[in-house]
Write a sequence for this structure.
């Protein structure tokens, strides 16, 4: 997870952390669909249902914790960004479990769904974009050349230090898009009670 703030035209990283969405105490984690492969369908449904519930709880708790800590630091969270997969899932669990490729896709979707629900739980608007379309969408929305966006994303990582991995760069960019979607960015992203601290 990467949180960005400040000037919506050139935001800075204000938080970076790893968010755990898999509880090792829950059967099936960290790869619930892999664990369900080979089980009877009803058993597979129960196992995956337990993982869905646990991932949802962890996502809500993690996002609420982040929102609270950012608020304590003087920031007003205004939205979430989430990268989407380009894969499409079959309509049935049996169809998913019949394909190893679909099993991988379904596991990604399970965790993305948990994060999307957590965003709704925290009443934060959700900006979504497919990963393969991220830089094209960013160039259009931010009205910046893709090269300039990539350069700024690389610079953003210097403030938090290495490693600045590809997934963190993508998270920072989709967060930037979420920040830019806020209707009155310059007037509303700061807590008016502590304007200097927030800037």
């Amino acid at each position: 997870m990467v949180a960005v703030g400040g000037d919506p035209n050139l935001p800075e990283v204000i938080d970076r952390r790893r968010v755990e969405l898999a509880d090792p105490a829950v059967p099936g984690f960290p790869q619930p669909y892999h664990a369900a492969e080979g089980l009877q369908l009803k058993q597979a449904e129960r196992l995956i249902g337990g993982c869905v519930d646990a991932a949802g709880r962890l996502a809500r708790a993690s996002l609420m914790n982040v929102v609270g800590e950012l608020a304590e630091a003087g920031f007003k969270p205004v939205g979430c960004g989430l990268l989407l997969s380009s894969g499409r899932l079959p309509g049935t669990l049996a169809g998913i479990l019949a394909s190893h490729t679909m099993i991988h896709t379904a596991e990604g979707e399970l965790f993305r769904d948990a994060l999307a629900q957590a965003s709704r739980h925290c009443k934060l608007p959700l900006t979504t974009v497919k990963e393969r379309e991220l830089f094209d969408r960013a160039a259009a929305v931010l009205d910046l050349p893709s090269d300039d966006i990539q350069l700024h994303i690389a610079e953003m990582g210097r403030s938090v230090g290495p490693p600045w991995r590809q997934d963190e760069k993508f998270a920072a960019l989709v967060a930037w898009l979420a920040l830019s979607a806020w209707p009155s960015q310059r007037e509303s992203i700061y807590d008016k009670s502590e304007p200097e601290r927030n800037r």
